[in-house]
Structure formats: C-alpha cells, structure tokens
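Notebook entry, structure prediction.
Reason for the run: the old model in the group folder had no record of what sequence produced it. Starting over properly, with the input documented here first.
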Amino acid sequence: MQATPRYDDDAAAAKRVLGSEADAFESIVARWQGPLVNLAYRYCRNRGEAEELAQEAFMKIFKGLGKWRQDSRFSTWAYAVASNHLPQRAASTPASLGRSRQDRAPAAWRRSSR
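New structure, fully documented this time:
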C-alpha cells in the first residue's frame, strides 16, 4: 500500500523544480489535480471546463514557482494562486455565460436570500 504524500513532499518537489528538475512537478500535479479540478468545478459546473481551468492554474503555479515564499506551505501558496486565477477565468467560460455572478460563486460563498 502506497503511503499518503505529506505536505513536506510538496515542498521538496517544488524545491526540486526550482533547482531545474522540471519533472518533479509531475508529483505536485498528481497530488493536487483532483482538488484543483474540484475547486474549478465549483466555479464553472462543467467537468471538462474544470479540468481545463485546473490545467491553466497548474501552469500559473509552475510559472510563478519562483514567487513562492518558502516560509509558508507550498499547498497554501498553490491554492492561493489557483483561487486568484479560477474566478476570473471561469467567468468567461461558455458554461458560466448566462449565469449570474451569484450563481457562479462557490456555494459556500453564496449568501442566503432568506
């Protein structure tokens, strides 16, 4: 049985990427693909588009890796990058067009109309 990756594994992989081992990013993608696709899905409500949005977020994470302050957890930084990217991009996806801004927000963020 494979051990569950720990947060330290993400930081170690990120440091290897920063050290010119680009292949180490694969382990980050493998660990975070599901959570980022799920996060993207909350914005666009379309699985295919969510996968594309998550891929875009991974590109932002990869390109911005040099901006990661290593005094914070890699996962916190990566989620922040994705969370800043996804609402902007999801608003322009075909699945979200025609829906109100309130409807595009993740359910947990919506205010009750009661």
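Summary: The chain has one domain: 7-96.
The old model has been moved to the deprecated folder.
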